[in-house]
Amino acid sequence: MRLADSFRSERFGAVRIHELQRVIELDSGALPDTGASGQSSGSRVVSANAIRAIESEMVVVVPCMNETRSVIEGVLSGIPHDCLIVLVSNSDRRPVDRFEIEVQTVEQFCRLTGRPAITVHQKDPGVAAAFKAAGLPELIGDDGLVRNGKGEAMLIGMALAALSGRSYVGYVDADNYVPGAVHEYCKAYAAGLHLAGSPYSMVRISWHSKPKLRDGRLFFSRRGRSSEVTNAFLNRAVAEYSGFGTEVIATGNAGEHALSLELGLRLRLAGGFAVEPYEYIDLFEQFGGVLESAHPDVVASSVPVLQIETRNPHFHDNKGDEHVQGMRMQALNVLYHSPVTLPAVRAAILEFMVAQGALEPGQEPPRERVYPPVGSLAFDLLYDALDAEATSFRRIGWAPAAPVPARWPGLGSAIPVSPAPAREPVAAAD
Ligand SMILES: Nc1nc2c(ncn2[C@@H]2O[C@H](COP(=O)(O)OP(=O)(O)O)[C@@H](O)[C@H]2O)c(=O)[nH]1
Ligand SMILES: [Mg+2]
User: Fold this and answer.
1) 289 lines ligand 1 (CB under 6 A)
2) Segment 330-383, tens digit of pLDDT
3) First-to-last CA distance in the chain?
């Protein structure tokens, strides 16, 4: 894969956000790697071997809620062979058990391709019991089951990725209509993670266009409705520290993204659709140099965020205006309540939300749920309870390294169980 070079980046403490890099060639041939710094010719090649090396260490999590079987099949077909597939479903089990249909689809795919996969259902009482036993009772709602939400599904996926012993986790939505797009996202994850050159790295996708029908014609729009708002406010939050306006963040809502587990297991994930924008905010909170960090070793290192613009059109299920509005507000809710967000940004968020009719004047935005880091879990207890109690936990040609260690092997020390205390900013980030 050949990517355009990223010439500029914006720093927020240890977090280095690289400007958007285009995919120039999906397949760059048998050329050797030119990913190393100092070999810049406007583009960088990541060799097929380097991509494969990452893929064989990557878990791809597919959050899925009531998507059609043929679309799911297409998504599976696009995930590179060496990645381990984890399907986390919140699909209806009555009147028709849609989860069973999904499991059959995954099983059949794995049989034909000779590859492993894991499936799990978010509302399986055994899954709730396992997360409780492993030390994350916050995930459980009043009904005694894991809460609904995409963030919650991603958290389960990350925990299973850690159980697998692999080093990276990537996310691909189950409602992607174009298998070639899924394939490109995964290749871009691997290329980006290879180029990032840090144990604590993240790659986020910005698709080039999203086709829509307008007056009977296909129109390829550049940005989603929700992304524009989320990105504008995230950029404003960064600019307020540096004193310079910026448009560096183009992937605030990126559902398609991947990260090293070294980083992922330290992050606090938010619930629902706040999960993606909150990843940026938590990076700023934990590694931005503004608040005291529980991980001074990471702050002393570097946390690169690569943003890659892919070529395939992003074609996914249209879930309507209300859904988009809801997502946009969840992003603003988490930004508003973050201790790193400066007062001018908070005021702008309030003003925007009132103008949108999402808030009454004088009201505060609601708080979103934020979970402790997945790295705080006792993985041996998690596995034992899933194994014993979770009937939806299907291991298709996959078994963990025995015995499962309590802590993810890549983490030097245990991750603190409780989130780092929220503190007021003490110093400006650079
Ligand atoms: N497991 C699980 N998946 C979910 C949940 N909510 C949404 N999803 C899936 O997450 C992906 C993204 O959700 P979607 O509603 O399409 O949001 P958008 O694409 O960001 O507008 C889709 O594959 C959904 O099926 C949930 O509560 N649990
Ligand atoms: Mg979607």
Assistant:
1) no
2) 999 999 999 999 999 999 999 999 999 999 999 999 999 999 999 999 999 999
3) 33
Which domains are delineated in the chain?
A: 2-32+43-209+252-313+372-396 (3.90.550.10)
Mutating to test ligand 1, I would choose from 64, 79, 99, 204 the residue with most ligand atoms within 8 A of its C-beta, which is 64
Report pLDDT for 410: 63
pLDDT at 19: 97
Listed in sequence order, the DSSP H helices in 137-178 are 150-164
Q: Which ligand is nearest to the CA of 147?
A: 1
Tens digits of per-residue pLDDT, 217-250?
Answer: 888 877 666 788 999 999 999 999 999 999 999 9
Nearest CA to ligand 1 atom 5: 150
In this predicted structure, the answer to whether residue 256 has a pLDDT above a threshold of 50 is yes
Measured from the Cβ of residue 71, the count of other Cβ atoms closer than 10 Å reads: 19
Task: Report the run of H or E that residue 202 belongs to, with start and end.
Answer: strand 202-207
Whether 4 has a pLDDT exceeding 50, the answer reads yes
